[in-house]
Amino acid sequence: TISESTTTHNLTLSGLDPGEVYFLQVYSVAGEDTAFSNVMAAATVSNSTGAMKAYFNGSVDNSYADPAENIAISTNLRDTIVAYIDRAQSTLDLAIYNIFNPGIVEAINDAAERGVTIRYIGEGQSGNIGLTSLDPSVPVFLRQTTVGSGMHNKFVIVDFETENESYVLTGSTNFSNNNLFTDHNNLIILQDKALAKAYTIEFNEMWGGSGALPDEATSRFGSDKINNTPKDFIIGGKKVELYFSPSDGTTSGILNALESADASIDFALLLLTQNDLANMVIAKSDDFFVEVTGIINDVNISGSDFDQMVQAGVYVIQHTPAPVLHHKYVIVDHADFSADPLVLTGSHNWSASANTENDENTLVIHDAAITNQYYQEYKARFNEVVVTIHNPEILEFNLYPNPAQDQVNLQFSSHSVANSRLLITDIQGKTVFAHNFGTYAGQNNMQISVAALPSGVYILSLDGEWGRTTEKLIISR
């Protein structure tokens, strides 16, 4: 209790247990009036190891490891998930969109046989063939609403009450054979009691309580959920943020991560239809000091912001060919250790339904090593697309002087830029110069007059059958 009359308060709470979640409410009394804050959840720092491990089911490019010994782990996601399920000794909670893989089902059944208390939540409108082989003693609760993707989570909680054996497994990976073995996905595993307890609170909200059996009368999914979990953690000395959708304002968390970029943004997404996120990407790309690149898989779906970003000069490419790029991650300032390197990952697609209807989880991990490991995977995906659809002999060009005053020169790396188109657009995406090269274009130099253009930042892009190359052009007088 603070007795003096003031609007600024500082209070130290002592005697709290490590690795616990506490619920706090502040109230203020002035005469006969009492004002109450919302109930807030906060987590104390645990004594857990804080170990974090990133896994990918595709190749990674270790040439981008920084430092050199920071090699990302690329392995079989199924075997990794099975290994952590096998660690469970007391409790195992799974919130999984769908399950098709016999090996994971067998691991869950083995856990049930050794006496582990298991609870399973799935999406009722998705194919869940694997559930037919689940041990009948394992209680299963399915979200049956058909809005959006429904219960779209992909997380596992192992032994949430233990100090050094509590694990959270999450990322983009569904428990289907395609997601585990074919489609590009990521898995992040964190050993932290406080985080495991926060995930358990979210699980219990969907389950309808903390009991062994679900309670449909008290369970909450989607927009019925409330914001009742901690957002901020210190895990292994690193800051970690946690968001559950749709109750926690996940889009705001993504926007904050993007806005924090000082040097670079790199994103790998299944889709992007959330306009405010696309607008933030465009705004950061317009910042001359921030390099933005991205890969999106589904670019032709309704509401896609892909074309808008391309037209605005963002260096974003479609992921082709197969398999599907199923990621939902963004990497910020991967090489700028003086800033705040972070990676944001989880189940949350960058869409309105993920933000307002689906059950999703998202982590923002402020850790240079984990960020670099995701960047190694990102460069493998980005470069394989560029190598597949781009001809570097044609794509590359030099742009000088830059900044320019009245004229800018282009020097192409190859004598042929046939069947391509050159555009200069302003920061609003308006085309201010266009030139189409014919079926035969023999020049390797080109001069463009920019004397009529006002000072400012522009995007020069070269489009052809290989894709697009962009470069920022500054006009300064």
Mean pLDDT rating: 90
Proportion of beta-strand residues = 25-35%
> Which structural class matches the secondary elements?
alpha+beta
Strand order of the largest sheet: 6-5-12-11-10-7-8-9
Please estimate the helix content.
10-25%
Q: Shape, please?
A: globular
Oligomer: single chain
Number-wise, the strands total 27
End-to-end gap: 62 Å
SS field, number of helical segments: 10
- Unreliable spans are 389-394
Main β sheet profile = 8 strands, mixed
Give the C-alpha Rg.
25 Å
Description:
With 477 residues, this protein is α+β, with helices and mostly antiparallel strands. The chain has helices spanning 77-85, 102-113, 177-182, 193-207, 250-259, 275-285, 306-311, 352-356, 368-389, 392-395, and strands at 21-24, 27-30, 33-36, 40-43, 52-56, 73-74, 91-96, 117-123, 140-143, 154-158, 167-171, 186-191, 232-235, 238-245, 264-269, 291-296, 315-318, 328-332, 342-346, 360-366, 397-400, 407-412, 421-426, 431-436, 445-449, 456-464, 467-475. The strands form 6 sheets. The chain has an 8-stranded mixed β-sheet with strand order 6-5-12-11-10-7-8-9, with helices on both faces. An 8-stranded mixed β-sheet has the order 13-14-20-19-18-15-16-17, with helices on both faces. A 4-stranded antiparallel β-sheet has the order 24-23-26-27, with no helix packed on it. A hairpin with a 2-residue loop joins strand 26 and strand 27 (467-475). Helix 1 runs parallel beside helix 2. The protein is globular and about 75 Å long. The model is unreliable at 389-394 (pLDDT under 50).
